[in-house]
Specification:
The protein is an alpha/beta fold. The protein has one domain: Transcription Regulator spoIIAA, CATH 3.30.750.24. Helices cover 42% and strands 32% of the residues. It is built from four helices and five strands; from the N terminus they run E-E-H-E-H-E-H-E-H. Strands 1-2-3-4-5 form a five-stranded mixed beta sheet, sandwiched between helices. Helix 1 runs parallel beside helix 2. The relative contact order is 0.19.
């Protein structure tokens, strides 16, 4: 899996490519989140448009990132969640935890509407 990072309207977009299944990705994710939080960047958008598969370990990576960001006073949301991943989130009830948006712009707008 590859991770690219961009900023959009005061939020950081992490665009994932490939499969989110754990392994070295877990450590990479932890390091990215730690670096972002150390830099004071607490509004995170995970773009899943190019993720074709996620397993339980991948879900754990997302939950860990969400927990870290929330503890730091920020928020983490998802965008471009495909049908397959959306059904996994629904079955695991993680759709109740993660805010999900159709586009990066909608996700960034969510952060604009949050109190500072």
């Amino acid at each position: 899996m590859k991770i690219s990072q961009k900023e959009l309207y005061g939020a950081v977009v992490l665009e994932l490519h490939g499969k989110l299944t754990g392994g070295p990705e877990a450590e990479t994710f932890r390091n990215i989140f730690k670096s972002l939080l150390d830099d004071g960047k607490k509004n995170i958008i995970i773009d899943l448009k190019k993720v074709d598969w996620i397993n339980s370990t991948g879900l754990g990576i997302l939950i860990s990132g969400y927990t870290s960001v929330r503890k730091a006073g920020g928020d983490l949301v998802l965008c471009h969640v495909g049908d397959r991943i959306d059904s996994i989130l629904y079955v695991t009830k993680l759709n109740l935890l993660f805010q999900s948006f159709d586009s990066r712009e909608e996700a960034a707008e969510y952060f604009k509407q949050q109190p500072a």
